[in-house]
Design a protein that fits this description.
With about 425 residues, the protein is of the alpha+beta class. It has 17 helices and ten strands. Strand 5 and strand 6 form a beta hairpin.
Length: about 425
């Protein structure tokens, strides 16, 4: 493989693809052998999940402890490469337990599909014709998935919106679908595809796109917690956290980093359970900007007792059936560890983890600063990168943290000294 142009690459076996990639990239025999190794996800299964597979990549998976949600205990698997995330979530969950843990509710597993209609001569009249045909439209949509209907799901309603645009007025039909324990992308997309010719007949227009929306604002999860002021370190810390949150609420530049910290908790659980991280990230950030300015996904207040009251409201389109959740062997085990029985319960656990992660980050910012909390864990990664063996890694970490010099070159110097002894 001398160039990236390669006809029929998809026809090769994973081993053959690896050989071509190694030749193109100049990989050593050792590097190629490392890529050929797999963990729980064997190469044959991986080859059926995505295209052009030549290797697999593992992430560390930790478990966050101390989570009490709606009176039930959970261990929360988190697949993530960033140090301090799992420890921070566990610590925040421990503090939340003092006042009963996390309390969660949801709006149900409801998704939207959109059908974009162009070239409608009478868009406002067409909108009403669509509503007149609502029963017909719902019947056609629900005929696409009898199993979903048998489980109590299916299309429940529809919305029709009219959007002026530089290329002409668009009529957009939105299907409102209960997808039960599925994330629902395939289901709602199939419904939209099936309805396209009928929508064209009713409107007299031309259907362009028909696809789900990842702004799942009818699939919200809401989680709240009260955190004892003494568990946090006093009312001064409560005030500091409220001030830090307020900064994120009013300033999009701060909100971006604030919400990234929330996603530090959410995304690893989504990853561990084989759900779609990109869909969750897109929906969360779009929801944070729903009122015209990007803002915080959480709210933090001081209640009448001087304790910290926190809450999060976030779209959470995750599933327990379909996709990698039912294929990836580790994802299946992660779901078993969680012990969740429905997609909405999984969504509540994920949102609670996001709220906990945000609490931990804001407490660090309001007290010692974020770097101190990260330093020792980051130092361990640097020490290992510098070649520290298990017998000296703790000494290297301790020296770097003490000198506040968590840098690769200093770690290499320390490793050299200790190995010289």
């Amino acid at each position: 493989m001398k160039t990236s142009e390669f006809k029929g690459f998809y026809k090769l076996s994973p081993a053959q693809r690896l050989k071509e990639v190694a030749e193109f990239s100049g990989l050593t025999t050792e590097e190629a052998a490392l890529l050929a190794k797999t963990g729980a996800l064997d190469m044959e299964l991986a080859d059926h999940m995505i295209e052009n597979v030549f290797a697999t990549m593992q992430l560390p998976m930790g478990v966050a402890v101390n989570f009490l949600i709606n009176g039930r205990d959970y261990l929360v698997p988190m697949a993530v490469e960033e140090p301090s995330v799992v420890a921070a979530a566990s610590n925040a969950a421990r503090m939340a337990r003092v006042k009963g843990g996390f309390f969660a509710s949801n709006t149900g597993p409801v998704m939207r599909a959109q059908i974009q209609v162009m070239n409608v001569v009478d868009p406002y009249a067409a909108r009403l014709r669509l509503f007149e045909a609502r029963d017909e439209i719902m019947a056609i949509a629900n005929a696409q998935d009898p199993m979903l209907i048998s489980l109590g799901g299916g299309m429940q309603d529809m919305e029709v919106h009219i959007f002026p645009s530089p290329i002409g007025t668009m009529v957009v039909v939105q299907l409102i679908v209960d997808t039960r324990d599925a994330m629902g992308a395939n289901t709602v997309n199939t419904m939209a595809e099936a309805l396209a010719p009928h929508v064209e007949r009713i409107t007299g227009g031309r259907v362009q796109l028909r696809i789900l929306s990842n702004l799942a604002d009818k699939r919200l999860v809401r989680v709240r917690a009260v955190v004892d002021k003494e568990a946090l370190g006093g009312e001064g810390v409560v005030d500091g956290i409220v001030a830090a949150y307020t900064f994120a609420a009013i300033d999009p530049y701060r909100a971006a980093t604030h919400n990234k910290g929330i996603m530090n908790g959410i995304t690893p659980v989504v990853t561990a359970t084989g759900n779609d991280t990109r869909a969750i990230e897109a929906g969360a950030h779009a929801y944070a900007a729903r009122n015209g300015q990007y803002t915080s996904l959480t709210t933090w207040e001081k209640n009448s007792d001087g304790d910290l009251a926190g809450s999060i409201e976030v779209p959470m389109a995750v599933g327990l059936v379909g996709g990698a959740t039912k294929i990836h062997p580790v994802a299946k085990i992660a779901v078993k560890i969680l012990g969740v029985k429905s997609a909405v319960e999984l969504a509540e656990v994920i949102a609670a983890t996001g709220l906990a992660q945000n609490l931990a980050a804001l407490r660090a910012l309001a007290t010692e600063g974020i770097q101190r909390g990260h330093m020792s864990l980051h130092a361990r990664n640097i020490a290992v990168t510098a070649g520290a063996t298990p017998d000296i890694v703790d000494q290297v970490v301790a020296a770097m943290v003490k000198e506040r010099k968590v840098r690769l070159e200093y770690a290499q110097e320390l490793v050299g000294r200790l190995k010289g002894k």
